[in-house]
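Help!! Second protein's tokens look totally different from the first
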Amino acid sequence: MTFKKLVGKLHLWLGLASGLIVFIVSITGCLYVFQREIFEAVHRDLVFVTPPSAAAQPLPYSVVWQKAQQALGADQPIYYANAYRAPDRAWSFMTYKGTPGKPYFGGQVEVLRSAYVNPYTGQVTGIIDNKYEFFQLVKSVHWDLLLGDAGRWVVSYSTLTFVLMLVSGLVLWWPKNKAARKQRFKVKWDASGKRLNYDLHNTVGFYVTLVSLVIALTGLTWSFDWVRNGVAYLATGHTAEAHGGKGGKGGKKGMSKDKPVALGAAEQALANQT
């Protein structure tokens, strides 16, 4: 068996092994790109407010925090918060309870709710149950197929397999000579159905390979420490761990345990930006 035939077999089986998972990850990734725009359009009354005046200042961050905590309930402490410099945005506060690594509906997410608060009045504009929110599910499918650590493993290694498939495809595409090179960059539209299908796969595949590699490799930084450290080292001369960056999709980082200090720092930061 020649080298190219061996690579061809490898290309075929790598594609079969990773194709469905990569397709699911790609579709969910494309959907999630527009998460903010669609979410804000659908929930406009929750996420946007009208400032009382052009010179109006928001309430102290700790006051808005307390309003959100009251709305969510004392038994569901705030886990994550967003405050905005934009004067027409409600601030959001999220509570989370679950066990990272378990399947999404099997314990990974028991409680996931967000309260939106008008920062000028302290009025709660609404509460969303993020556990069943469309884009939260899209993101979780993208990360781990709703299967927790097992799904994350499948997604990670399917993406790695996809990278190897792209490289093998480039090897197969590489022309033998100058005459063959001319044919590699264009599609012969008047060819038979089988040849047209081959040209489309061969030519279009070449043009999207670089983009696909960038997307896949950047995705792998969330999956493997060695990829993340390699990218960080190439960019900065230091590994990600040297900068304190460890852990990918699975790790959830909560709010500071020293809440008064965290709130004070947030209030000072907001004051400096106004």
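Here's the second one for comparison:
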Amino acid sequence: MIRGLQLVCNREEAVKAHLQEKPDIFKLAYLWSHDESEDCEVNDEYVLDGLQPHPNLKKLVVVNYLRTRFPSWFSEVLLPNLVELKLSGCRKRKEIPSLGQLKLFRHLELIGFHELECIGPTFYGVEVNKNANIQVFPFLKELVLWNMPRLTEWKEMQLLSTGNDGRDRVGVRMFPGLEKLRISNCPLLKSIPNQFEMLRELSIHGNQILEFGIEVLLLKH
């Protein structure tokens, strides 16, 4: 666990940890502790960019990251072995990183995205492939959404068109292995996708609209 990252001045200082060169580190936690009463420059994005881990990383936790973008190493190419991810206190983020194509991903927690209004295509990270149907989060088992006061919409992935005439279609399977879904303190969220093929446990708190429809959704599975 790496605490006090608000004290790191820039990317150059963060790079000195040489985390990208340490293949035996499988778990990392990055923690910031910002004093919001101080009018100070926030260098989170540059610091996190300099803390790029080795591709062998399996579990990552990021807490109180206050920039609006994540670095480019948040991808299936540079985190191919990631199994578990927790992003907490990312209060200024309006989008979630593109994570849907991580092949070994099993557990995802998204907490405290106060500016997030919509979960959609950016999150899924889909690229059209004419030769195969597409799976989004193919092996994810558990998903947690918590404390997102502005989240109103969670979009499904629809059939994608290929070719200039738009006639060719590519099928999309969302969360084909998801078994547990927990949603808490997302009071404005109006609906959730109904494409969960293997869902076994659904927990919703702090949202009267979704709580009312929970029994109907469970009956479908």
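Reply: Different proteins will give different token patterns, so don't panic. The chain has one domain: 5-219.
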